[in-house]
Structure to design on (63 residues):
């Protein structure tokens, strides 16, 4: 619920690699490319279209 209520322009994505594995990948080293899994999970929790989420998060990461 928290993720769905936060303003989209306040979000960034990260994987915490290599130290913290993504859920479902415990026991395996984390890798930066797993940020795609994080993004897909975020899209399931938000109402905005994935393309809009991607654009806003990109802008957030550049600020």
């Amino acid at each position: 619920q928290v993720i769905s209520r936060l303003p989209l322009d306040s979000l960034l994505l990260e994987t915490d690699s290599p130290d913290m594995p993504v859920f479902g990948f415990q026991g395996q080293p984390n890798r930066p490319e797993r940020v795609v899994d994080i993004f897909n999970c975020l899209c399931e929790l938000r109402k905005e279209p994935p393309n809009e989420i991607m654009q806003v998060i990109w802008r957030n990461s550049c600020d």
Q: What stands out?
A: DSSP finds three helices and no strands in the chain. The CA atoms of residues 8 and 53 lie 7 Å apart. The two ends are 26 Å apart (CA to CA). The chain has a mean pLDDT of 89.
